[in-house]
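Lecture 7, part B: from sequences to assemblies.

Below are the input chains for today's worked example.
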Amino acid sequence: MTTTDMTAAGVDDSMRNGVDTAALFATLDAVKQAPEAAKFQFRAHNQLVSGTHNRTTITDFFGVGEERAHERTFTFDADHPAVLVGQDQGPTPVEFVLHALAACLTAGLANIAAARKVRLTEVRSTVTGDIDLNGILGLDPEVRNGYQRITVRFVVKGDAPAEKLRELVEQSRARSAVYDVITNGVPVTIEVDTR
Amino acid sequence: MTTTDMTAAGVDDSMRNGVDTAALFATLDAVKQAPEAAKFQFRAHNQLVSGTHNRTTITDFFGVGEERAHERTFTFDADHPAVLVGQDQGPTPVEFVLHALAACLTAGLANIAAARKVRLTEVRSTVTGDIDLNGILGLDPEVRNGYQRITVRFVVKGDAPAEKLRELVEQSRARSAVYDVITNGVPVTIEVDTR
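Predicted structure of the full complex, as structure tokens:
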């Protein structure tokens, strides 16, 4: 986040950290009145390109009672690097998981800080995931397929004491959708149409 | 995957579905000889831009005993749509989770099919995730923050019977890193530096 953003945000007191807190609280109130509005379905559409290279488009979703679409279609390629027998046309799928976690915690932090009237001047994070590929390669039955551990290291600065900044991160963690998915797991159903 | 890709892949018998099966088996043999080579660390670096809009770069990783980098730096923006008080500068973090799952299952499917000498002519999938935002909004303590369920719907075509194609998808699921992360969970540690 740049200093320019921060200054611009300071013009209107309802805007903080780029968050429209008036809209945020109005949304909360609206959902309190109509809890069904909060039922969302997100979607990703993927297609094999070649080998480990495949491409996802993200555009449609359901929420607040109706079908919706992003303002544009987002397209992402995933692949393996050469050392994992790919062409490196995109990050690996497991790297996108780390991105999702960083993005969710950071968006939550910005919202929560704004709601609590804390101006953030810098929020950076590095997320690391340790994985032993003996799992997915099927070479060691004792090794899991996925990450063994994930670590998020935040640098957070703003106009609040260190303790308060840490509380904001903790509250973001406590309300993070991706953190919940990654730490607690989600049931996944796979259907296959071969017609 | 286009018909042209398929034809090109057919020129060399070690290439199948765009997968260099000779390299794939050589990698498996190399890791059997030196299991430590399979210890990888993947990383994502994220920075708050403004509000729910933040940006991740993915470039460096560790694997096969040394620090490595992708051939280029990949950059991804995440945001919320307007209906969730964002500017829609990118997909939501939870949508990237669906992308990661589709990408992982599809890359695995291409590798496994190639190893088992099945030529795939079409692999598409749609991944949906149902989420009730009463969780992350803190409005209902009974509702979890993350997805309640995720469904993957594959369309798979190739030169094998339907039963065989289903087996390939099942084997991909059984060896998928992202499927494991999402269904079984991973311990996540968060550190905060406020200096």
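Note for the exam: Chain B touches chain A through 135 residues (CB under 8 Å). Keep this in mind when comparing with the next example.
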